[in-house]
Amino acid sequence: MSFLDLAAKRGSIRAYKTDPVSEELLAQVLEAGRLAPSAANQQPWHFIVVRDEQVRQRLQQAYAKEWFWKTPVLLVVCTETKRGWVRQDGKNYASVDGAIAMDHMTLCAADLGLGTCWVGAFHPAKVKEILGLPDGIEPLAMTPLGVPAAEPRPKIRKDLKEIVHYERW
Ligand SMILES: Cc1cc2nc3c(=O)[nH]c(=O)nc-3n(C[C@H](O)[C@H](O)[C@H](O)COP(=O)(O)O)c2cc1C
Known about the structure:
Elements: H1 3-9, H2 23-34, E1 45-50, H3 53-58, H4 66-69, E2 73-80, H5 94-111, E3 115-116, H6 124-131, E4 137-146, H7 160-163
Antiparallel strand pairs: 1-2, 2-4, 3-4
Flavin mononucleotide binds next to loops.
């Protein structure tokens, strides 16, 4: 599959089968995250894999959708702000780096026939408490990882002419 075909194939999946995800497939997805680039190669990320059903059920307190917590595997990408590269104007790139790792993983999952859905609308304090995150480690994004039970929605995207600017704005 070409990269553009893969990018078109990946879409948010909000319905999953209960089929398990093998350790081998999970390892490939995590490896895709590990290989992601990061500012100054700081790799300011941690990936938490949640398979335990009780923990998944508890995560309902952070994000209540059934398609999320009932999926056999949840991935939580966390960032370590103090490891993020800081630009001269003070902008910390840890979140950018974590998002790239997450995107690598969602694309790898799609390549393997697995579904994902970025979840950002969660209660961070609940995730921190339930997963026991130490101070300085922030949950950035979560996704279920499982066998899709539905096709992604059709892609709705802006036209290139709305977003591409040549030479200057
Ligand atoms: C940073 C980020 C946060 C998101 N948070 C949520 C979320 O909390 N819940 C949800 O259902 N989808 C969430 N999404 C999925 C977007 O709604 C989805 O990516 C977008 O509508 C485009 O659709 P597609 O992923 O199928 O291409 C999020 C996506 C991104 C990139």
